[in-house]
Amino acid sequence: MNLYGHKVNQLARNFTKKLNEKISPLGLYSSQWGIALYLYEKKQCTQIELCQYLGVEAPTITRTLTRMEEMGLVIRNEGKDKRERLIKLTEKAYEMFSKWHEAAQSLEIEAINNINEDELEIFNNVLAKMMKNLE
């Protein structure tokens, strides 16, 4: 019996646990890392975009953003109307980003140890197809 979803979920849980071990000493947690990474790449976005990208409900993102705002890592500004909030990283977050990225990258390297390029390409293709199937 191959429970692929269960295996992917177990991998994600293990990855999250290990990522937290690496980045929490740097003042960040995996849920915050996903937001920081997205904002670093996009420069700014709406809360709705973050919810869609991370696949989580608005209250969860709101709580995480509030914590990140209190830590001085994000700024939330009004968007086109009062309901829309534009989020971006602060200077403090940009200064820390390379350390966070380095920690996350070291885990990526550890995770793909002894896996060759062809296997990784197949893995990425399979993940992409599974994601598409579930949309």
TrEMBL record:
Cross-referenced InterPro entries: HTH_MarR-typ (IPR000835), WH-like_DNA-bd_sf (IPR036388), WH_DNA-bd_sf (IPR036390)
Gene3D superfamilies, alphabetized: Winged helix-like DNA-binding domain superfamily/Winged helix DNA-binding domain
UniProt key word Transcription: yes
Residue span, HTH marR-type domain: 1-132
Keyword Ribonucleoprotein listed: no
UniProt keyword annotations, A-Z: DNA-binding, Transcription, Transcription regulation
GO molecular function: DNA binding; DNA-binding transcription factor activity
Residues in coiled coil: none
Alphabetical list of SUPFAM superfamilies matching this protein: Winged helix' DNA-binding domain (SSF46785)
Signal peptide: none
SMART domains for this protein: HTH_MARR
Protein name: Transcriptional regulator, MarR family
Taxonomic source organism: Clostridium saccharobutylicum DSM 13864
